[in-house]
Amino acid sequence: MLSLPTAVKIYLARGATDMRKSIDGLSGLVQHQLAQDPISGHLFVFCNRGRDRIKILYWEQSGYWLLHKRLEKGTFAWPVPAECATTQIEMTSAELAVMLSGIDLQHAKKRRWYSRTA
User: How is the chain split into domains, by residue range?
Assistant: First the structure.
């Protein structure tokens, strides 16, 4: 499992992404579709149309990381564009871990909790 500093933001690209895209193609999507800087040190998460594959693009000081997860059975609970007008969703590392473990965040209920914002 990923252990991320709290300063790292995680952005999900809504809808389906062509999983044939590699680092250059995904970094182009980050710039043009998400209007973010791909070398910002944040994580950018993409999912395919069948929702059984996820790619995560991450810039470290010396280069890109590209993580790819393929489910053998089942699908990820991935937001579709019709649910909201925005092209991206920002989430926490805990929410990403829950989503990657197969839990649908839209049907999960988050209890009121104190959180200190920076």
Answer: 10-100
